[in-house]
Amino acid sequence: MTDPSLVECSVRQLHARYVDAVWRKDAETFLDCFTEDGEWKIAGMHLRGHAEIRSQFDKFMAPCERILMSFGTPLLEVDHNTASSRTLVTECVKHRDGEVIRTVGLYYDRFVVQNDRWRFKWRHWSLYYYGPPDFSGPFLDSPEYGAPPGMPAPDEPTISRARHKE
């Protein structure tokens, strides 16, 4: 069995590479965080593989001047060469038009070792807040999956904030 403390260190490094890629808007480094056939479920979309993930990353980054992401401590479950986690994430986003928003959510992840590094095999973003940085906006009605190791089902859709604007 893989040492959980070494896996946690590797996952934290993966998170750090991911955050750095988002800050720098570096699509290649961002993609390198995923397996070739990795899945990214976010904003009501289910993206599969590097081409789809790359296309959406570019669309997400286009209106943004900067995105500052902060990852909490991952709650890990380790099983040989695979792992899963849930991690609280906050973002402070400054759009090119001057709007500043904050997001709060959970990333549910499944990891595998590929090319001697842990990478995302599957990511599911559960959005709980999207609004003003002072939290004066409403929290979203996002599903809960219970205490760790509770995870969404592979076919569980993600919440789109557009759905909550109606």
Molecular structure report:
The structure is a single chain. It is built from four helices and seven strands, in the order ααββαβββββα. The termini are far apart. 27% of the residues lie in helices and 42% in strands. It has one domain: Roll (Nuclear Transport Factor 2, Chain: A). It has 166 residues and is α+β, with helices and mostly antiparallel strands. Strands 1, 2, 3, 4, 5, 6 and 7 form a seven-stranded mixed beta sheet that branches. The mean pLDDT is 94. It has helices spanning 4-24, 27-31, 49-61, 161-165, and strands spanning 34-42, 45-48, 64-71, 75-79, 82-95, 100-114, 117-131. A hairpin with a 2-residue loop joins strand 6 and strand 7 (117-131).
User: Might you state the CATH topology name?
Assistant: Nuclear Transport Factor 2, Chain: A
Mind telling me the C-alpha Rg?
15 Å
* Proportion of residues in extended strands: 35-45%
Mean pLDDT: 94
The level of helicity is 25-40%
Order of helices and strands: HHEEHEEEEEH
Total of DSSP H or I helical runs spanning 4+ residues: 4
Q: pLDDT under 50 segments (min length 5)?
A: none
Number of strands: 7
Distance between the termini: 48 Å
Q: Largest sheet, described in full? A: 7 strands, mixed
Number of domains: 1
Oligomer: single chain
